[in-house]
Amino acid sequence: MTAEPIGHAEWALDLTRQRLANFTLEDVLNLPDDAPRVELRDGVMILVPSPTIGHQTIGNLLWLWFRQNAPGQFLAATAVGVAISARDSFEPDVLLLRQPIVNSHHYFLPDQVEIAVEIVSPGTKRRDRMEKPPGYEAAGIQHFWRIEQDPLHIFAYDLVDGRYELAGDSGTELVLSAPFEIRLPISDITP
Known about the structure:
Elements: H1 15-20, H2 25-29, E1 38-41, E2 44-47, H3 53-69, E3 74-77, E4 81-85, E5 88-90, E6 94-98, E7 107-108, E8 113-119, H4 125-139, E9 143-148, E10 153-160, E11 163-170, E12 173-176, E13 182-185
Parallel strand pairs: 4-7, 8-9
Antiparallel strand pairs: 1-2, 3-6, 4-5, 6-8, 9-10, 10-11, 12-13
């Protein structure tokens, strides 16, 4: 009689490939189930920090608001990614996708994304404010929202001539005309 092994070896990041910056989206898609969530930045895997309860609540309430208020040609989603390129991917906090959904995989192509939303947390400030907007912009994502916490404030950007321009911002009610008529009371997404 042979003994069954207990557990299994945990996933570990290949540090040589990390230094070479040669990871691709295919590598991320082939990660085992026990691997942490990652984003790709120029072929380097970046661990996505676990969100706080306040961060999760904001994202979940925004998902619910989209679900209840967005027209039928859109679908709200969380915990999915955007394939920016073969060497770059993002894991936004909330997405508003265009229907019909052409795949049911983890990653969506930029042309399927109407709004990408990042909720800024202490561990994601630099990426959410400085690194991700140019990536979404270069990928042609039409609308990008950045949500700041303490106090809660939304900054909404529209892609105009290849560059993001501030379309609106508010700490009380976000009012926008695109991608649909939006009147989002900030209290609706406040934990």
